[in-house]
Design goal:
382 residues; alpha/beta; Quinone Oxidoreductase, Chain A, domain 1; Rossmann fold; 2 domains; seven-stranded mixed sheet; 24% strand; binds NADPH dihydro-nicotinamide-adenine-dinucleotide phosphate; binds the ligand N[C@@H](CCC(=O)N[C@@H](CSC=O)C(=O)NCC(=O)O)C(=O)O; binds zinc ion; S-(hydroxymethyl)glutathione dehydrogenase (NAD+) activity
């Protein structure tokens, strides 16, 4: 048993005290895990666009002060009463989409959206409605059931998965959100078939993973759409066959351009921007009769999507995907093994374009906005 088991741990964490304010590195007290909980030493965390979105104050579930971060990997430090699935030293990936294998959702065979801890997760508290973080006596909220911007975090036993200890956590942390989300949206949610035509809007980490998923599915055409010419080489490196800068089409709309390029529209489109106008274009660029558009991007509070119902009447379908439809406990261990064995269709290493540390975590948000960052990963030990 670790020498810290059962005791509070004092460590560093990046705290978001208020919306749209820089993170502040604080000494945080992390309480021991209670029944059904696990305390994790976080080694690496990616910074996802959703962290920036929540920090901005656009998330209707956003609550402050909070420790953000949800793309984390680390080691189990100690477990709470009744936890048998994990032990000290296990290499783990945090799961913002939990998997309990018991709830109606887990048992349905129709969704990965486990609801075991979702309600309290959205309120920023543990399932018993209390928190495990304090700074100078003040309670700090949890985020997405994970809070990976802390050197130690406490999560529900449903919100982490044990993976091969050999795996490089600086890379596998990305399987906790962005990469799995994009790849899974193609393979699990849309189930793109060989020969299909695909368009991907927004070439960040999620969009590139959609491209890799489409390539793995042997799509015949993969059109990347972005407003930044710098994304063309990224898209092509990951498998896109074509690139369209939607801001450089003159009088032609992006829908018209895509319909022209594909003899009537795409079999599958994916929104990876979170922009509701782009979501509409992604739907309307689908082929009449069968095209399917998958919304992945997260839109700010108050935003709504719209289209003419005729678009749906004439056979286009709109759907969404969270965490790529992936069940974390069931599917991530094999994805990690494929990566460590060099057999994965996912070029995980290539997504990490920037590195930072916990003490300079804020820099990661600056990199994210600069347009040349696919993923920034923070070393939580420094
Ligand atoms: N559903 C889910 O489970 C998940 C959803 N998300 C969401 O997915 C989205 C993508 O995340 P992530 O890849 O991390 O984000 P990024 O910011 O890295 O990528 C978004 C990309 O979209 C581009 N873009 C912006 N506006 C447009 C536009 N009008 N048309 C085309 N491209 C545009 C951006 O260009 P530029 O470089 O110029 O900014 C950028 O390249 C976010 O909304 C995020 O919150 C993320 C993870 C999981
Ligand atoms: N809290 C927001 C919704 C945010 C959201 O859509 N989250 C995605 C994951 S984004 C990851 O980077 C998701 O999986 N949603 C499913 C869920 O159950 O949260 C809001 O209230 O609008
Ligand atoms: Zn994310
Ligand atoms: Zn469940």
């Amino acid at each position: 048993m670790s020498s810290t088991a059962g005791k509070p741990i004092h460590c560093k964490a990046a705290v978001a005290w208020a919306a749209a304010k820089p993170l502040s590195i604080e000494d945080v007290e992390v309480a021991p895990p209670k029944k059904g909980e696990v305390r994790v030493k976080v080694t690496y965390t990616g910074l996802c666009h959703t962290d920036a979105y929540s920090l901005s104050g656009s998330d209707p579930e956003g609550a402050f002060p909070v420790i953000l971060g949800h793309e984390g990997a680390g080691f189990v430090e100690s477990v709470g009463e009744g936890v048998t699935e994990f032990k000290e030293g296990d290499s783990v990936i945090l799961l913002y989409t939990a998997e309990c294998k018991q709830c109606k959702f887990c048992k349905s065979g129709k969704t990965n959206l486990c609801q075991a801890v979702r309600a309290t997760q959205g309120q920023g508290v543990m399932p018993d409605k209390t928190v495990r973080f304090k700074v100078k006596g003040q309670e700090i909220k949890h985020f997405m059931g994970t809070s990976s911007f802390s050197q130690y975090t406490v999560v529900s036993e449903h919100s982490l998965v044990s993976v091969d200890k050999k795996a490089n956590q600086q890379k596998t942390c990305l399987l906790g959100c962005g990469v799995t989300t994009g790849f899974g949206a193609v393979t699990n949610t849309a189930k793109v078939e060989e020969g299909a035509t695909v368009a991907v809007f927004g070439i960040g980490c999620v969009g590139l993973a959609v491209i890799e998923g489409a390539k793995a599915r042997k799509a015949s055409k993969i059109i990347a759409v972005d407003i930044n010419d710098g994304k063309e080489s990224w898209a092509k490196k990951f498998g896109a066959t074509d690139f369209v800068n939607s801001n450089k089409l003159g009088d032609q709309s992006v829908v018209e351009k895509l319909v022209e390029l594909t003899d009537g529209g795409l079999d599958y489109t994916f929104d990876c921007t979170g922009n509701v106008k782009v979501m509409r274009a992604a739907l309307e660029a689908c082929h009449k009769g069968w095209g399917v558009s998958t919304v992945i991007g997260v839109a700010a509070a108050g935003q709504e999507i719209s289209t003419r119902p005729f678009q749906l009447v004439t056979g286009r379908k709109w759907q969404g995907s969270a965490f790529g439809g992936v069940k974390g406990k069931t599917e991530l261990p094999a994805m990690v093994d494929a990566y460590t064995d060099g057999k994965s269709p996912i070029k995980l290493d290539d997504y990490v374009t920037h590195e930072t540390t916990l003490s300079e975590l804020q820099k990661g948000f600056d990199y994210m906005k600069a347009g040349d960052c696919i993923r920034c990963v923070a070393d939580m030990s420094k």
